Amino acid sequence: MRQARLLIPLLLLATVLVDRVAVLEAAAEPRFGAPSLFSMAILSLPMSQVCLLAAWAALGSRTPAPWRAVGLVIPLAVWSKVTASLVGASAAPAPETMASQWTFFLLLEALAAVGLLGIARAAGLRAIGAPYPAEAEAAASSRPFQFSLRYLFGWLTAAAIVLAGLGYTFSLTHLALEARTLREMATLATVNVGVLLVALYATLGTRRRLLRWLVALVAIALAAAAAMPPRRLVLDVPGGVILVGCTAAWIVASLAVVRAAGYRLAWRKRPSPGPSPGRAGG
Fold first, then answer.
1. Is 276 inside any structural domain?
2. Whole-number pLDDT of residue 38
3. Which of 30-44, 124-138, 198-212, 219-233 has the highest mean pLDDT?
4. How many other C-beta atoms can be found within 10 angstroms of the C-beta atom of residue 101?
5. Domain for residue 279, yes or no?
6. Is 280 domain-assigned?
7. Rg (CA), the chain
8. Residues 211 and 136 sit within 8 Å (Cβ to Cβ)
9. How far is 149 from 281, CA to CA, in rounded Å?
10. pTM value?
11. What residue numbers bound the domain in which 163 lies?
12. Which of 27, 88, 96, 192 sits 20 to 30 Å CA-CA off 62?
């Protein structure tokens, strides 16, 4: 089991290496950002990774919540800056405007994912690792919230880091969004979050494997059909389909490694109420 847990650090290392190679290849492409399979595959990296980090921020338990927020926002800000520098070289908007737009879009995607998964967590959804100690998980999750100065300082420090990271890439003065652009951003963010949810269900679920994957494939196909932009690329396939397909592939591949490391999704059972004192006394 310890060897399986090493898969998570290896996944992080492989992700960093893939990102580095992808950025170097994109920087060498003079027309990066133009509609192409290569551009869509690279642009799907920040979208998929922000979705995965949002799932970790919402469902994680071993890392304190303030540092999960930092772990979500800092890669988001870095990706916004890097993507803006790559796309801005061949696009009309200035790099500052492009960085603000990418930060806004990825932040919209992250907040939607964290919000929905946070509701699921409040309802009892947990990401647990082998040997799946259901009783211990229920007991740990039912502990009362304890406020401390250490916790307060942690949130204050995390908030300062988060604001600094967002301030590095985001500026309202450079955020120029038309109604059509905002609508496309909202549509794509919704589609990506939907892909994340069905991928989590299909990959980390514990029952009805065939049904899980059938539902996931149908949902991803419908999401890809609704994706923007509708510009057509290779083989007369709409660009949104390729973008969503690449995003789904990155998410599913990463979650498959997480599953191999022993993690599953489970609903925490609420403890049944014990007998009342009156009944106990007879």
1. no
2. 81
3. 198-212
4. 23
5. no
6. no
7. 21
8. no
9. 43
10. 0.79
11. 2-143+150-268
12. 192
Provide the number of structural domains found in the chain: 1
In the DSSP assignment, the letter for residue 129 is E
Cβ within 8 Å of residue 159, ≥6 positions away: 66
By C-alpha distance, which of 7, 2, 39 is closest to 23?
39
Residue 183 to residues 115, 178, 201, Cα–Cα distance (Å)? 20, 9, 27
Note whether 254 and 14 are within 8 A (CB).
Answer: no
Strand partners, 265: 127
Which structure tokens are listed for 71? Answer: 């772990």
Name the nearest CA neighbour of 125 among 189, 174, 59: 59
Tens digits of residue pLDDT in 120-130: 988 888 887 76
For residues 208-228, give the mean pLDDT.
70
Q: Which residue has the tokens 């300062």?
A: 160
What is the DSSP pairing of strand 125-129 with strand 263-267?
antiparallel
Residue 245 lies in a domain: yes
Distance set, CA 82 to CA 34, 102, 174 (Å): 16, 10, 17
